[in-house]
Amino acid sequence: MSASLTATGLHLTLGHNHVLRGIDIHVDAGKTTTVIGPSGSGKSTLLRVLNRLYEPDQGDVLLDGKSVLTEDPDKLRQRIGMVFQHFNLFPHKSVVDNVSLGPRKLRGLSKEEARAVAVEQLEIVGLSDKVDTRPANLSGGQQQRVAIARALAMKPEVMFFDEATSALDPELVKGVLALMADLASGGMSMIVVTHEMGFARTVSDSVVFMDEGQVVETGTPDALFDNASTPRLQRFLSQVL
Ligand code: ADP
Ligand code: MG
């Protein structure tokens, strides 16, 4: 079941760097919020605070209305699936073993049950014919699909994507974006950090523009892309569109 996620007033300082300066962000259950903004604006750090890889100095994070800051971080990270730019698959394990490892170790499924879950997820991402191969025999786009299947096999309530297509060869980007769009329309709650403005515009329910650790604008895709109200977003869009 998908959950809503709300964060309010998040602040985080790393070293001498005040990286997050009062961030509010929300995604409704089953909806997609996209985060756009220049490099260094704090997007990746924000995702890390939302799943408690970093503890915020101030602010709160609510999953389905309940603060997660008192929850066991390991349990929380099982509720949030994360997909990164670099897929970090285990090279010496088969595709299906990569995907079934989490369900076995963290959800306590038997080997057979975990394999069944993994095969099912690999079907969903379009890789039923690659179950027993090694990651090195797959394209970057297929490897990223395995990483997505690995996250889905944990039955997360929310999925985070951090520039999931940025490391892919251009011809492989579309397929991964199409899979992400399918997940979104299938009712997964998603927070998607991306430079793919077409995806942000057509798939998101809500867009957040971050700059220098703050949310500068937030709203529907049409509101942000057609009626950017701040010079900072106007300048950013003129550089990326
Ligand atoms: P984005 O994902 O938007 O490119 P990041 O969240 O990676 O931005 O980084 C935001 C800012 O935080 C950058 O200025 C970066 O240098 C700084 N930063 C990230 N991690 C650390 C850290 N561990 N210590 C100090 N500064 C950091
Ligand atoms: Mg980043």
What does this structure look like?
The chain has 241 residues and is of the alpha/beta class. The protein contains nine helices and ten strands. It has a six-stranded mixed beta sheet with strand order 6-7-8-3-9-10, sandwiched between helices. It has a four-stranded antiparallel beta sheet with strand order 2-1-4-5, with helices on one face. Strand 7 (158-162), helix 6 and strand 8 (189-193) form a beta-alpha-beta unit. Helix 4 packs across helix 5. It is globular, with a radius of gyration of 18 Å. The mean pLDDT is 97. Bound molecules: adenosine-5'-diphosphate and magnesium ion (MG). Residues 14-15, 17, 19, 37, 39-45 line the site of adenosine-5'-diphosphate. It comes from Nocardia iowensis. Belongs to the ABC transporter superfamily. Keywords: Amino-acid transport, ATP-binding, Cell membrane, Membrane, Nucleotide-binding, Transport.
Main sheet: strand order: 6-7-8-3-9-10
**Morphology:** globular
- The low-confidence runs, each spanning 5 or more residues with pLDDT under 50, are none
**Head-to-tail CA distance between termini:** 35 Å
SSE ordering: EEEHEEHEHHHEHEHEEHH
